[in-house]
Amino acid sequence: MKNAVGSLPHLVLNRLMGFFMQDAVQLFFVAKVLRIQAEAQVAFSEAVTIKRVYSSDSHGNKSSDEENAIAIQDPLHFPCPIMTIRIVNLFANSSLGGVLIDASASVTLNFGERESASPIYERASSRTTRTGSKLMKHFHTSKQEQIRLRNGNLHLFNRVWDIEHELNSSSPLLSKSFRNQLRRNNDKWQQAFRKDNLDGIFVDFSHIVVSIKAISESSATEVFGHHIYKSSEVLKCFSPVDILYTERKGRKSTMIDFEIMNDVVEDIA
Question: Which of 15, 122, 152, 232 is in the most buried spot, having the most CB atoms within 10 Å?
Fold first, then answer.
């Protein structure tokens, strides 16, 4: 009887510990599910591209021959190049939803210590999404400049979002002297945008930080995403390829070719 009474507190303690452990496991899985739900189901391109524009419109629809004719008539007025960051909705080809509503993007230029000394136009070999409190603390304490976007808001993000920034006289990517030159030239480049003609044009930066937030149509919750690019992952004189195609099986629909979402094509000088 004495042994039975003596073991009673241990039995109660074990039961309590069991309840606590069960609750802790449940809370862990709930927290994990909430974290997953808070992450926007999107993919960022492996590299940032800066492309030459062959006309004054936003899409560069003119051919290189037409642009050469313009340059002959006015050789000191070239359109500003465009920087592009591609973001793809991972549910683009799915019928299960995944549409993001009222998406907004923010892009900042970081001037902290560079991680790589490789040429800025070399293509990166792997994706570089970086997380961690130490890294983000470094970004918060380093000098930053906001990059103004041409299309920083998207009401319906269901396929591809090519975020664009124009390299004009207000672009923090450009050196102060070159920005002053652009102001004097009515925001037109006085030279063609080529790899062999870029000395003294760009500032020396370490990273480009991209953040997005949106509302998930399926869960009605706010979701977030971010990606960090090294300076070596900015490809000059490159353009992203077209990744949309038409699926004609059954009902005609537009699909994304995810296998080539990171492919780029070099601008022809």
Answer: 232
Residue-wise pLDDT tens digits, 34-65: 444 588 899 999 999 999 987 544 444 444 55
- 224 three-state secondary structure: strand
Residue linked to tokens 């977030």 = 224
Which stretches of 107-186 are DSSP H helices? 133-141, 176-184
The answer to whether 73 and 43 have CB atoms below 8 angstroms apart is no
Q: In whole angstroms, what is the distance from residue 222 CA to residue 162 CA?
A: 21
Strand 234-236 relative to strand 48-51: parallel, antiparallel, unpaired? parallel
Tens of pLDDT, residue by residue over 179-226, are 999 999 999 998 888 888 888 899 999 999 999 999 998 888 999 999
Q: For the stretch 65-97, what's the b/e string if a residue is b when 16 or more beta carbons lie within 10 angstroms of its beta carbon?
A: eebeebeeeeeeebbbbbbbbbbbbebbeeeee
